[in-house]
Structures are given as structure tokens and as C-alpha cells.
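Researcher: Please translate sequence to C-alpha cells.
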Amino acid sequence: MLKRYLLAPGPTPVPSEALLAMAMPIIHHRSPDFLPVLDAAKKGLQWLYQTKNDVLILCSTGTGGMVGAVNNFFSPGDKVITINGGKFGERWTKICKAYGLNTDEMVVEWGYAVKSEIVEEKLKKDTSIKGIFVQASETSTGVYHDIEALARIVKKYENTILIVDAISALVAHDLKMDAWGIDIMIGGSQKGVMLPPGLAFVGISEKAWKFAERSKCPRFYFNFKKERENLAKNQTNFTSPVTLIIGLNECIKMLRKEGIENVFSRHERLADATRKAMLAIGLELFPKESPSNAVTAVCAPSGIDGQEIYKNLREKYGITAAGGQDHVKGKIFRIAHLGYADTFDVITAVAGVEMVLRGMGHPVKLGSGVAVAEELLLK
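Model: Translation complete:
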């Protein structure tokens, strides 16, 4: 028998409370039974986003939220900046170009965070720039971009909005949408929110809604104005993903019970223990600065294929982590500590890495990383 452990940065494990809630008989999305369900989800997401503004619920992956954040607020030819520090920053560029936006791609070396002062210089030189697109947590590299610093800069420009892909950062990092001035923030169900894939969440500021009035990009399914109108009536524009929204309410109930500050500190503690355990094993972290609390990216030892580490974790010990992408494929592997994760998820991951490396002939003192993780995670 091989017991399975899901330690990938998405999908992440789903708690039994949510699974049981989603196993209940289906209800109709236009019936009175569903109205309080969506109302609870709407309020719960506002709590999680730390906002008084609407947070739309879309039946899509997080990428659907990203697409909607482009075609609902901009017009072909609009000047925007996309920050590309990994595969998902690259996705912002592809989406913006697909809708005809005049896109200035800021390429950031993988493993590093964007320098907010460079963004500020670009805005000072060209006040016609209408949008700054960025990841909070760049999942492919394990780097966190300083969203608070970027928001502080962008909020000074009346004709520019900040759009944040927080799909893997939501829950793992404290993102204060209203207090910082984030204009559009996208989340996804299969990450820190602890659900199966299928929901995207989009928080939108009043400043951003003014941009929506001028947008000329084509849209049909991702029509945020219609979604907002329906949300006011506790409905979605098209068929609601009823089961997932029921599960969402259970997961938010769990997060509320833990307390939002405790949720953030748990992710910070798990991430810190994972990083220090990897260093104790003798491995190098891929992020050179500003590591994410959602996922730890680790460099494979010289002469060892990172994809083989990922493969052996899964096949020999039942641990599903993640490999590298693009030009770092085979050079890194990634371990998530996101959402429904606790002390023993980290210890399992660290022990698995030690055993896999020993089995591949790399000199590892078994227990060296585990001991560090245990010390840091003792309560």
C-alpha cells in the first residue's frame, strides 16, 4: 500500500468538512435555497480579501479571472506594464497581448522580486500607462513580489490601476486589498482556499469599476458588470457552481475559526521551517530574495535531475510535490505548504526529500532537515 500525500502548489488537499458538505444533495442555483448560500460566500470572501467591495465568484480556473481582469477594464491599444518574473507573469503578457493591449513586459530574472522603484520610474515617465499587472506569489519560482510597495506607488496615479494575481498567495500572505489600495485581485479555489479547481474570485475596487465603464474589449462569459448586477441579488450571471460554493462556505468557516492573523502566521511558520530544513539538508533555495509562504522552490543538487526528485517522491513515497518549469525544469523542485497544511505535512515533505536524495546516491544525513523542522514547529 502506498498512502498519498498532496504537497503540490495546486490543487491542494481539501478538508473533510468541505468534502462532506459538497456531498449533500444538489440544489438549484435559481431556487430560494441557494440565495443564503451565495450571500454567505459573498460576505466570506470580503472578509478574506479584507475589502468592503464586491468579490465576484466565477465558474472557472484562476486564469479565467485573469482574462476577465484584462477584457473588462481595458481597451485595445491601452498601455500597460506586465511584470514577468516566471511562468505566471508570462501569462499576464500573453493575455494582455491577446486583447490587443500595448504591453510593456518587465522581465525580472527568475528567483528575484520586482523592484518597485523601477515601476515608479516608468509611471513617472509615462502617465498614459493604465495598468500594472503582477503576481503576488509567483508559483513557478517561489518568489513573493512586494504588493504593498507597488500599491503605494500605483494609488498615486488616478488613471492607473494595479491588478494582482493572488491565486497562490491568497490565504498564505496578508494581502490588505482596501488598506493598501489593490484595485483588482484574483484568487482561485484550488490553492489556499482548500477546494477543488473550478472557482475564480475577483475583488474589484471602485477605482477599477470606473475603468470598466470605458473598456472596449470584447466579452461575453467573463462580463463583470453583469456578474456584479447578479451578485447584488445573490446570483451569478450564468449557472452557479453550487457544490463548490457550498464547499467554499465550509472552508471560509474553518479559516474564520482559526482567525485571519493566525492563518497568515501558520503559513509563515510552515514556510520558514521548510526553507530552513532544506538548507540543513545541504540544499540551496531557488529564490534569491523574498520567498513565498505558499511554496518553497529548491535547487536540485549538482548532477541530480530535479524532475527525478519530484518523480521519486511521488512513485516511491506517495508524495506529490512539483517540478520546475520552462528553463528551470530539471533544476529545481517545489514543495507547497498551502491551505489545508500543518506541521506534519512539512515533516513528511522534508523526510521524503532526505530519503529520495539518499536513494539517488546523494550524501544526506538522514534526519538533519527533519530535526530542524521539528524544532521550529514545536508548539
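Researcher: Any highlights?
Model: The longest helix spans residues 260-281.
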